[in-house]
């Protein structure tokens, strides 16, 4: 799964973490100050090509280039350009999208303050000012759309290259792998699903981490506008503490009630593969795929799907109840502050949006649990290939006849 696409994965991924920690430490302790502080109060698309932003872009390119050159000489790999440089490009695009969210959040404050001033007639507001704010938003959104579309196009090619690398690796070992249950499906379908799903989860995880790094300081600063929280009263950094506590509670709860789903999904792929294989064999051999055999195989499919539906039933009850409360949780926290009238409409909208960004980042597992379940089942299926190639015993789940479920 990884050795086919990345050079020496057991060393490569730790080196990524170490190098990332080093260049981030260097940036925040020294390099970021070389260009001076950012201009305060700047709102709009000009943020993306300010001197500080361009200096960070150059710093990022140099850091990636040094890392890529080292690995090209230390452990040459035919897919190194895609696995190293491609991953770095996706990482930068993710960072850029987070910066777009920061820019939009900065725009919300003055825009809604302008609306409040216009509606309350507290100060004169012209139509030119109103449309000027909208044009600022449009310019930010235009850049975001262009970058997003180009990034998705690149990611599509990145995923297929990863699938191609896995396909080449497994096909070169096909004589050893062909006897594994559902081997054809695992090579033809699971490789693409693994690359697609893992890329999606990894990008979402990186985006969540970057969003936290970008919005936690914003939320901490906005916390000064909130005097107290319901039931708790006045505490330091109330919005930050509330976002963390609420997200950890939901993540722990849903991880607990959804813990059996990966195993059930694995067995779902097994029974589907057995049914598909019998149908394929029946196309050329009249003795195969007779109605009793197909009925028995389909009965296994039905039984496992019904088990999956039942387990998802109580998982979704917990998930949906939590997310419905989550939709108004920020307003509950701001209740005393709103009623007291101590914040403006613009500040309230900035708080709601920043709180949502931080809260959603902490809820990565909640929002991704179904995808993680799917990825874990695919991983278990492809792990059998890895074990066979290495001459190691198959995972215990390969010999289990029934999944553990409700």
Tell me what the structure shows.
With 406 residues, the protein is mainly α. 78% of the residues lie in helices and 0% in strands. The chain is built from eleven helices and no strands. α9 runs antiparallel to α10 (345-362). The mean pLDDT is 80.
Number of strands: 0
SS content category: mainly alpha
How far is the N terminus from the C terminus? 31 Å
What would you report as the Rg, rounded to the nearest angstrom?
26 Å
Low-confidence stretches: none
| Shape by Cα distribution | globular
Beta fraction:
under 5%
Question: Would you summarize the structure shown here?
Answer:
The chain is built from 11 helices and no strands. It has 406 residues and is mainly α.
């Amino acid at each position: 799964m990884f050795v086919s696409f990345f050079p020496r994965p057991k060393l490569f991924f730790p080196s990524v973490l170490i190098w990332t920690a080093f260049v981030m430490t260097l940036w925040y302790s020294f390099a970021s100050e070389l260009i001076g502080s950012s201009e305060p109060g700047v709102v709009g698309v000009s943020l993306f090509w300010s001197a500080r932003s361009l200096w960070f872009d150059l710093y990022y390119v140099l850091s990636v280039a040094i890392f890529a050159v080292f690995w090209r000489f230390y452990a040459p790999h035919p897919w190194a350009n895609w696995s190293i440089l491609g991953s770095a490009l996706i990482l930068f695009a993710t960072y850029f999208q987070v910066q777009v969210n920061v820019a939009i959040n900065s725009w919300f404050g003055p825009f809604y303050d302008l609306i409040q001033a216009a509606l309350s007639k507290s100060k004169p507001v012209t139509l030119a000012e109103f449309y000027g704010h909208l044009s600022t938003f449009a310019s930010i959104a235009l850049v975001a759309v262009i970058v997003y579309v180009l990034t998705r196009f690149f990611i599509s090619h990145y995923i297929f290259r990863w699938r191609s690398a896995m396909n080449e690796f497994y096909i070169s070992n096909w004589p050893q792998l062909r006897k594994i249950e559902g081997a054809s499906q695992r090579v033809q379908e699971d490789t693409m699903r693994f690359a697609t799903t893992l890329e999606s989860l990894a990008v979402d995880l990186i985006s969540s981490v970057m969003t936290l790094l970008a919005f936690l300081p914003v939320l901490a600063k906005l916390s000064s506008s909130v005097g107290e929280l319901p039931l708790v009263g006045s505490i330091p950094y109330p919005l930050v503490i509330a976002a963390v506590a609420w997200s950890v509670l939901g993540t722990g709860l849903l991880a607990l009630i959804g813990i059996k789903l990966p195993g059930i999904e694995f067995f779902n792929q097994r029974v589907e593969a057995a049914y598909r294989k019998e149908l394929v064999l029946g196309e050329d051999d009249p003795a195969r795929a007779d109605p009793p055999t197909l009925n028995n195989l389909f009965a296994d499919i039905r039984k496992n799907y019904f088990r999956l539906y039942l387990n998802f039933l109580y998982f979704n009850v917990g998930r949906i109840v939590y997310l419905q409360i989550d939709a108004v949780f920020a307003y509950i926290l701001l209740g005393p502050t709103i009623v007291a009238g101590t914040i403006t409409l613009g500040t309230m909208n900035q708080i709601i949006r920043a709180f949502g960004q931080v809260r959603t980042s902490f809820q990565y597992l909640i929002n991704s649990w179904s995808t993680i379940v799917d990825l874990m089942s695919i991983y278990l299926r492809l792990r059998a290939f890895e074990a066979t190639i290495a001459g190691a015993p198959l995972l215990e789940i390969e010999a289990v006849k029934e999944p553990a479920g409700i």
